[in-house]
Write a structure and sequence with these properties.
Chain lengths: 238, 238
DNA sequence: TGGTCTAAACTGGTCTGGCCAATTTCTATA
DNA sequence: TATAGAAATTGGCCAGACCAGTTTAGACCA
């Protein structure tokens, strides 16, 4: 009848907590090396297996990075580490693949509008780089997957809004997880790849000319055709 | 000089990935029990310690829950659990409080546009409820914090896009974390609360009438005034 | 027959000790 | 002095064992 302690605390959790505190409090800075597992075990008075489980947990939490033969190092936390769990949560709720594309449309049109107002020389340069990358990919028959994502990401980055950038990171992770396969078939369709490259150019020009409305429309149009093409591909399945 | 494989894959990571896929793909539903560690080890042809590290990792990722003496169970996870870590990561990168509001503007205007096209009777009813809640709060001098958030959330829900809804959840968590204090002063300002209630009505009417453009504009205007008022309040600080 | 209590089986938690492979450090040699 | 090779260190993985709870099944009683 002891309601105070709901579940027995596991040993490795204590270890996790101790190390976590050191990191959060700054005693252990990113890049610092932890004591070797064997020494940690001795120092904390637990077995190496307990220490190992703790370290495994901390790696999963994104706080550590372990190099075999070398040691465990404190890691700099980035948003990417949260995307996997985030994706697995959202994926279960998503009924329709197009929800992701639609969300992208919302996010990217808004970002493009801001980008048109704020893009700096370096942003435009980056956009142009990825634009050229994609054209090259198309011309040489390569996969445009990477250059396409990069371009879209650049648009959002050009908005200079860190929150939007992070949300876009989430969406990108979601996309990879969700429709990697169907995407393949889409990008293999040559006419569409060419149309895409063209539409990317339109987006780029709109942002460069600083016209928010035009930029918004260009992105909306681009994703509209993407969604339509996805629908068509899906239609041929059934 | 082998650039293809940056780091050797650890055994337990494979196990993590296998189990994760089963969960994400739905083969393992929340509440399901996994095989005992010893059986898993045998089945996968690895040692029990490898399995244990994999399970430890999955627990840290929030996908499993383990009860000593009983077994490992697939956990039902909600997005809320990830908001805290997500917020702590994003907060470090956010330079400007207004990035959050701006992101909300992007997300909510897009959602409102969709809501105008898709809102069903139940959605409109819900919106109307929260509208009335807020009016009551204003009239009786109560805090409008809750009813305000609820209304905005309802707009996004009426878009019937689960991805947008989840992103909005993230933003809401971020808001709470970031500007709880300044927000208080804002909602204490009576004239603004009244204007807000009025603008909410406009949003509601626009969605009800099924006019996407009008809905978009109404939300944009509403958040514009919010942002301006925030700026004004911040200006008085310094 | 139906319910209860107990003992065995099972399950996760932890430990010990060992071997391997990669990395780092040290050392002897050119 | 520079470098190649040996030795020590470190994490990855394994086998087997014991403990402390939980679950299960069977014996026993009403």
């Amino acid at each position: 009848m002891d309601l105070t302690r709901k579940k027995r605390t596991r040993l490795y959790e204590d270890v996790v907590e101790q190390i976590r505190r050191l990191i959060v409090e700054g005693t252990l800075a990113p890049g610092d090396q932890l004591l070797p597992e064997r020494q940690l075990a001795e120092k904390l008075g637990v077995s190496r297996s307990a220490v190992r489980e703790a370290l495994t947990s901390l790696v999963s939490l994104g706080l550590l990075e372990i190099t075999p033969g070398s040691g465990a190092y404190v890691k700099e936390i980035k948003i990417d580490q949260l995307i996997d769990p985030l994706a697995s949560i959202m994926l279960k709720e998503i009924n329709d693949v197009f929800d992701i594309l639609e969300a992208r449309q919302v996010l990217e049109t808004g970002s493009a509008r801001l980008a048109a107002q704020r893009a700096e020389r370096t942003d435009l340069y980056e956009l142009h780089e990825f634009l050229r990358d994609m054209e090259n990919d198309v011309n040489e028959g390569r996969d445009t997957d990477e250059s396409d994502s990069q371009f879209h990401f650049s648009v959002v980055r050009a908005s200079h809004n860190t929150v939007l950038i992070n949300l876009m990171t989430v969406l990108m992770g979601l996309m990879k997880e969700y429709y990697g396969p169907s995407r393949k078939r889409l990008v293999e369709n040559r006419p569409y790849r060419e149309m895409w490259a063209l539409q990317h150019t339109e987006i780029y020009e709109a942002i460069k000319s600083g016209d928010p409305e035009q930029a918004t429309d260009a992105v909306a149009k681009h994703l509209d055709t993407t969604i339509k093409e996805f629908r068509r591909l899906q239609g041929t399945d059934e």
